[in-house]
Specification:
single chain; about 110 residues; mainly alpha; 7 helices; globular
Length: about 110
C-alpha cells in the first residue's frame, strides 16, 4: 500500500541517483539512507555528499530554493543552543542568512 503524503520519496530518489550515477559514494550515504523518513536536514546532507558544490554562485543559487518545516527550524535552533553558537556561526554552519536565523528566533522562541 502506498503512503499518501505530499513529500517526494527522497530515499528512492537518492538511492536511484547513487546506483546509476555515483555508486562510489553509496557507502558514504548508507547512514542517511537507512532512515525510514528523511528530514530537510537529511536531504541537504545527502545532497552535499553526492553533489559537492563547485562554486559560490551554485551554493547561493541552491540556497535560495530551500524551505524548512517548523520541526526542522526548531532542530536548527536547538543545535545552536547545544553548541553555544551565535547567529553568525549558526548561519555559516547551515549556509543561511543571519537575518533568517534572527527571524526564526523571534518566531520560535527556543
Amino acid at each position: 500500500m502506498k503512503k499518501n503524503t505530499s513529500q517526494p520519496d527522497f530515499k528512492r530518489i537518492y538511492t536511484d541517483i547513487l546506483e546509476k550515477k555515483f555508486p562510489e559514494k553509496k557507502k558514504l550515504c548508507e547512514k542517511i539512507l537507512s532512515k525510514k523518513t528523511f528530514s530537510e536536514l537529511d536531504v541537504i546532507a545527502i545532497n552535499n555528499i553526492i553533489f559537492a558544490p563547485v562554486s559560490k554562485d551554485i551554493i547561493k543559487s541552491n540556497q535560495q530554493h530551500r524551505s524548512y518545516s517548523k520541526s526542522t527550524i526548531i532542530k536548527i535552533l536547538e543545535f545552536q543552543k547545544q553548541h553555544g553558537l551565535n547567529n553568525t556561526k549558526l548561519a555559516l554552519h547551515y549556509k543561511l542568512s543571519r537575518n533568517t536565523v534572527s527571524r526564526w528566533k523571534k518566531l520560535f522562541i527556543v
